Amino acid sequence: MDTQTLESVPVFDRDFWSDEVILDPYPTYRELRDLGPVVWLARHEAWAITHHTELRAALGNPRVFSSARGCMMNEPMNKAFAGNILCTDDPEHLDMRKVFALPLMPGTVRKLRERMEELAVAQVDLLMKRESFDAVADVGHYLPINVVAELVGLPEDGRRHMLEWAADSFDAFGPMGNERTLTGLQIAQEAGSYTRGIDPQKLTPGSWGASLFEAAGRGEISDAQARSMMMGYVAPALDTTINAISSAIWLFAKNPQQWVRLRADRGLVTGVINEVIRMESPIRAFSRYVAQDHSLGGVELKKGTRAMMLYACANRDERHYPEADRFDITRPARDHVAFGYGTHTCAGMHLAKLEMTVMFNALADRIARFEIVEEERRPHNTLRGLHRLIVNAIPA
Ligand code: HEM
């Protein structure tokens, strides 16, 4: 950006990916929103879309805010992900999404409910025999790991690495020069070479993975697309949902009266999901390539720049949500952007919502209150969540 242009736009000149900002992001998000709906991140040479209204407008305008040149903040990742569902524009994107989203439609996902309920109830019963447990490893992980591994149908060696690949690949979405990005890039390469080498014969027959290769066999998608979509079932499905479930327990431990309300009225569970991921959005931001000169929020964005879509920041926009920092499960928050918005809206949201509903109900049946014993967060370039959350669960 030339200096003349810079003088007329709001500028943020600190590192958006520093440990301090990542571990306690909300004061920075507020500062960014107060600077304006569209802010220049000088350190990273990219725009940040910070307000709810402008973010929905940008996500709903993929001709300007294009995904086809990648959604990450570094070119090696943008190149490596070329052709991935996340990193394409329509119509190519929609062709892939039609095949990809088949097993993730509400009606299909609903059929998993009974099996999930059995798993969740058995796990919570087991945990109630212990004095305390880790809401991340023992609760958050449980359904995403067991259900996703089974449905995708990866062989044992893939299942073993799934969690590590998923989380670290998201670290690789950060800017170059950031240590986490560099480590993430190595792991993303490892995951990529595993995916390229998968033998379709080794996938569980009838699994989501096997169906993708069948679609490739019928010529509906290419072999390379089948491989990249298979990881699309794994990478975005794990830590996002794990973080949402464990963040919920953290929020309820801090706001016990909200837990009492949910226990008294299970009809509130959909509101709980929306409010949890509005408050603690598991994905903080992805980026877009600005494909045309465009005016947004009073700022002229030039073709060829990059814009960060700050979902987590827009979800706390006090211009849109009164008392935005307050956790209120009865708040009308359906229009949050934690699952994105527009053509790239999360393809797995019905599965994620079902996993959360089932787990919250199993916990609410048995637990009167959570007390936090210990909590630990680790910085991550893209994801927000706890690394460990030891809680005492007071039985109902
Ligand atoms: C609470 C859990 C989840 C959250 C918060 C979340 C969040 C998001 C967000 C913000 C996007 C938009 C990306 C963009 O704007 O470019 C997205 C896209 C996506 N998500 Fe999720 N997600 C979750 C769970 C899942 C699950 C369980 C799956 C898979 C089974 C999944 C698969 C995907 C895929 C494939 C896309 C790309 C869709 C496209 O480009 O058309 N997600 N997710």
CATH names the topology as: Cytochrome p450
Percent strand = 5-15%
Bound molecule types? protoporphyrin IX containing FE
- Name the CATH class: Mainly Alpha
Largest sheet: 6 strands, mixed
CATH architecture: Orthogonal Bundle
Gyration radius, to the nearest Å?
Answer: 21 Å
List the secondary-structure elements in sequence, H or E: HEHHEEHEHHHHEHHHHHHHHHEEEEHHEE
Mean pLDDT: 94
Structural class: alpha+beta
Q: Spans with pLDDT under 50 lasting ≥5 residues?
A: none
- Estimate nothing, just give the exact number of structural domains: 1
User: Number of helical runs?
Assistant: 19
The largest beta-sheet arranges its strands as 1-2-3-9-6-4
Instruction: State the fourth-level CATH superfamily.
Output: Cytochrome P450
Distance between the termini: 59 Å
Fraction of residues in H or I helices:
40-55%
Gross geometry: globular
Brief characterization of the structure:
The chain has 396 residues and is of the alpha+beta class.
Structural description of this entry:
The protein is of the alpha+beta class and 396 residues long. The chain contains 19 helices and eleven strands. It has helices spanning 3-7, 19-23, 26-35, 52-59, 75-80, 92-100, 106-110, 113-127, 135-140, 142-152, 156-171, 179-197, 208-217, 223-234, 239-254, 256-264, 269-279, 311-314, 349-366; strands at 11-12, 38-41, 46-49, 65-66, 132-134, 286-290, 294-296, 299-301, 306-309, 367-376, 388-395. Strands 1-2-3-9-6-4 form a six-stranded mixed beta sheet. It has a three-stranded antiparallel beta sheet with strand order 5-11-10. A two-stranded antiparallel ribbon has the order 7-8. Helix 8 (113-127) runs parallel beside helix 19. It is globular and about 60 Å long. Residues 67, 71, 85-86, 97, 104, 232-233, 236-237, 240-241, 244, 277, 282-283, 286, 311, 338-340, 344, 346-348, 351-352 line the site of protoporphyrin IX containing FE. Protoporphyrin IX containing FE binds next to helix 14, helix 15 and helix 19.
